[in-house]
Automatic annotation (TrEMBL):
Organism: Devosia oryziradicis
Sequence ranges assigned to domain Aminoglycoside phosphotransferase in this UniProt record: 16-192
Name of protein: Phosphotransferase
Listed Gene3D superfamilies: 3.90.1200.10, Phosphorylase Kinase, domain 1
Stored InterPro entries: AGP_Transferase, Aminoglycoside_PTrfase, Kinase-like_dom_sf
Amino acid sequence: MAWEALAQWGEDAVRIEPLSGGVANDVWRLRVGGRIAVGRLGTRSDADLAWETGLMQHLDRAGMAVPVPIPTLDGRLFADGLVVMTYVKGTAPQTEADWRRVAETLRQLHRLTAGWPQRPGWQSSIDLLQARTGTRINLDAMPEEAVARCRAAWSRLVGRTVSVVHGDPNPRNIRVTDERVGLIDWDESHVDVSDLDLNLPHNAAGYDPITQDVVSQASAAWEAAVCWNDDHSIQQLALVRPVEDKIT
């Protein structure tokens, strides 16, 4: 990865400071064309970045507050693994009311992306009932007992609505103002069961107890699989019931 690619956004494009939260990417606050922006440098393929930047443009045109790709001088939305985006202002959600607004914003995302094609290389939770690998997930790296637990949790999602999911709607990736809720860091977005985005604090999505259990179990299973084998994934797997205890 090389930041020399930033020159393709103009001679005045410069890095200001690194931003926290990037795991798979190098993320910086930039100044481009006299305005603050965000740059994300990673190793994703051109097809992957085309999917993500196209999604951002679609959501922006629909009125959602998301990072919008800033083109290079010759009009490309990314170059050599680098994406430059607008900066989304706001603070993390604090109150139950904030989280209800987050839930409605995520549902807006889901409505706007029904029928969207899958991100190149990704598999959904439903796909992983049969498949064993997909981008950041490798079930072959997990103990078979853990795989069985995850698949049992995901099997309860079959038949539910599918759309693009943000994939990581934690407080660091949410920017709340009085006027709107912004969503940043779409690096884990893909097509999946919409409910996976809605395992939120305060049961902000308003699920009944049975549905909340389905969603929380499936979400913990996804977090375990996508991050395996770090402390967070092990903690999440501990939340997934053994197969013999599964509630249907």
